[in-house]
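Fill in residues.
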């Protein structure tokens, strides 16, 4: 199968996948395709999305591939989404999620110490939304549950891995107006 024949197949598979689809999953679905050709077709498809100035792009997210909207069109998408009901996170849940994302693995008492308030309800909400998950137990008295972000967190925030989280310096630049 040529790269040109493979590109529309990959595009269709990536489009219908409910989560980012990995190269390993694509290779299993297409065992007749050489891995080098698969990689070349993915890169050619990514470049086509880039070159044609489309509203969509092919991105690597959470270790897999997903077709997503371009950041420069997010204002228009927000306008559209404002007309629809959404399941937003409260400020408490967002604060708790940020603490977990940057300090993981972390226990509920440690989260509460950082935030200075009871965070049990926020943790429960984040667990229900599958943005965080238990990562084991801390080897101390009482063996409290350790929490960390989930694959769903990476997907929802468009990250390939946690190294793509903004740094403290990024936030300082925002606060100073980028100057």
């Amino acid at each position: 199968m040529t790269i040109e024949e493979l590109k529309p197949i990959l595009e269709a598979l990536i489009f219908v996948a409910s989560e980012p689809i990995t190269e390993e999953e694509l290779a299993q679905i297409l065992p007749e395709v050489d891995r080098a050709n698969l990689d070349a077709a993915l890169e050619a498809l990514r470049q086509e999305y880039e070159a044609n100035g489309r509203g969509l792009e092919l991105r690597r997210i959470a270790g897999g591939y997903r077709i997503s909207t371009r950041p420069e069109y997010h204002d228009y998408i927000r306008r559209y989404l404002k007309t629809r009901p959404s399941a937003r996170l409260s400020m408490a849940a967002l604060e708790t999620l940020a603490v977990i994302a940057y300090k993981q693995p972390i226990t509920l008492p440690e989260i509460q110490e950082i935030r200075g308030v009871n965070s049990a309800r926020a943790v429960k909400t984040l667990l229900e939304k599958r943005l965080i998950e238990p990562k084991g137990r801390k080897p101390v008295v009482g063996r409290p549950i350790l929490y960390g972000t989930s694959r769903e967190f990476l997907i929802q925030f468009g990250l390939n891995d946690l190294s793509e989280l903004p740094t403290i310096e990024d936030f300082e630049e925002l606060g100073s107006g980028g100057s």
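Strands lie at 56-61, 64-69, 106-107, 132-137, 145-149.
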